[in-house]
């Protein structure tokens, strides 16, 4: 094998290839302009071309490909939510992740290892029973387990018997898993580009030109382009871009921090979380322990990391696994969460006729990447919001028809 690789690398006619073509010149106009070159925008571009034959599409990214929240998350995938609407939506997302490597011909390193959320009180167990029954009703693999089963699923965890954070049981979600975040983005980007979609990096949107209630042109730092339809999917900047388009969104931004340790031998086969400790952990394929928690308690559109949050996450991780006390941290990062009042996303139509929204993801945008891209592409292509997305319409806030998922996160906000 090494000799084969050496001959391949040194042969005189070796031609390197690029997954993503170089950034082309902007055309005068496109059928669809997607603002945001993260996972959601790239997935929507792929499905527009693949499923609907719409290939005159431009993806505009102000920075580099998938360099925003897609690169600043902890790769968790799950569907153990509280409401019927959310469970149905994220269940479809889990199914798309399971087949994505084959569908794209690009290894996303999907690992369906299961997620365990710890209960530290009888009250927590009662709430888990509600979630488990709702999950079973919707066809997901979710069940309440006792402390003995917690020990079987995660032999190394500290059950803190008799202590303040004694583990009384847990919520086991066998459908939970992880995938490689950059591979998801690059897989969609590669296949979308092959279909004819143009990906424009370092292309910042600075404004819009409108005629009545329609966007006619998207203004960028590289010039104006005419747009038949526009899809906005820009993570923590969704509120700012919407204001440029002339309307406001019920969104507030909070930093969300995480960190990883040096690589260790495999010991954590599942995703483990504790809402009481505001901490969750998963071991990556490289052996690193990925540690995350709830978003910061203050509004800020910033990706700076803080010592306070590092200490907080370390405290939770050490309570669950005391033997990690001498393990070194490698790096820490921050994303910007765009939170809505009911902790559910906004998907579908906007106040403008040809302007579509994919925003308000808070802390669970990555796990929605394939289903959001697929269904938003359907909305843009057909002009009709799919039934799966209707509960997440922007107008639900006017009707007070909220989809409350505030308690569904693995690390409480």
Characteristic terms for this protein:
413 residues; D-Amino Acid Oxidase, Chain A, domain 2; single chain; globular; FAD/NAD(P)-binding domain; 10 helices; eight-stranded mixed sheet; alpha/beta
Question: What order do the helices and strands come in, and which of them pair?
Answer:
Elements: H1 2-10, E1 29-35, H2 39-52, E2 57-60, E3 76-77, H3 84-104, E4 115-119, H4 122-137, E5 142-146, H5 147-153, E6 169-173, E7 177-178, H6 181-194, E8 198-200, E9 205-211, E10 214-220, E11 223-232, H7 238-245, E12 252-261, E13 271-274, E14 279-283, E15 289-293, H8 307-320, E16 329-339, E17 346-349, E18 355-359, H9 369-382, H10 396-399
Parallel strand pairs: 1-2, 1-11, 2-8, 4-13, 11-18
Antiparallel strand pairs: 3-7, 4-6, 5-6, 9-10, 10-11, 12-15, 12-16, 13-14, 14-15, 17-18
Helix pairs in contact: 2-6, 2-9, 3-9
């Amino acid at each position: 094998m090494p000799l084969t690789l050496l001959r391949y690398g040194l042969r005189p006619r070796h031609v390197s290839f690029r997954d993503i073509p170089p950034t082309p010149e902007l055309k005068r106009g496109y059928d669809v302009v997607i603002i945001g070159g993260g996972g959601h925008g790239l997935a929507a571009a792929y499905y527009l071309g693949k499923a609907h034959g719409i290939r005159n599409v431009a993806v505009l990214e102000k920075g580099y490909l998938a360099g925003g929240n897609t690169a600043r998350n902890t790769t968790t995938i799950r569907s153990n939510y509280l409401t019927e609407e959310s469970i149905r939506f994220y269940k479809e997302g889990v199914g798309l992740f399971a087949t994505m490597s084959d569908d794209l011909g690009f290894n996303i390193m999907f690992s369906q290892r299961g997620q365990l959320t710890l209960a530290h009180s009888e009250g927590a167990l009662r709430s888990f029973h509600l979630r488990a029954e709702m999950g079973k009703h919707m066809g997901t693999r979710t069940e309440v387990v006792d402390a003995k089963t917690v020990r079987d699923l995660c032999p190394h965890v500290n059950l803190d018997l008799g202590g303040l954070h004694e583990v009384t049981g847990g919520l086991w979600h066998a459908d939970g898993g992880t995938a490689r975040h950059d591979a998801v983005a690059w897989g969609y980007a590669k296949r979308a580009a092959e279909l004819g979609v143009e990906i424009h990096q370092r292309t910042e949107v600075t404004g819009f030109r409108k005629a009545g209630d329609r966007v006619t042109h998207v203004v960028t730092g590289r010039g104006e382009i005419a747009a038949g339809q526009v899809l906005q999917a820009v993570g923590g900047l969704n509120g700012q871009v919407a204001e440029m388009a002339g309307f406001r969104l019920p969104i507030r931004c909070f930093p969300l921090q995480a960190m990883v340790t040096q690589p260790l031998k495999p010991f954590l086969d599942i995703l483990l979380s504790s809402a009481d400790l505001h901490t969750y952990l998963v071991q990556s394929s490289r052996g690193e322990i990925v540690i995350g928690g709830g978003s910061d308690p203050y509004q800020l559109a910033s990706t700076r990391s803080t010592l306070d949050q590092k200490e907080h996450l370390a405290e939770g991780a050490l309570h669950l696994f005391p033997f990690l006390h001498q393990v070194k941290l490698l790096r820490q990062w921050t994303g910007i969460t765009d939170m809505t009042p009911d902790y559910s996303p906004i998907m579908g139509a906007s106040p403008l006729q040809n302007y579509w929204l994919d925003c308000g993801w808070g802390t669970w945008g990555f796990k929605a990447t394939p289903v959001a891209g697929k269904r938003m592409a359907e909305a843009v292509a057909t002009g009709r919001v799919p039934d799966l997305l209707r509960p997440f319409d922007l107008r639900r806030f006017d009707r007070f028809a909220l989809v409350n998922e505030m308690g569904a996160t693995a690390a409480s906000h």
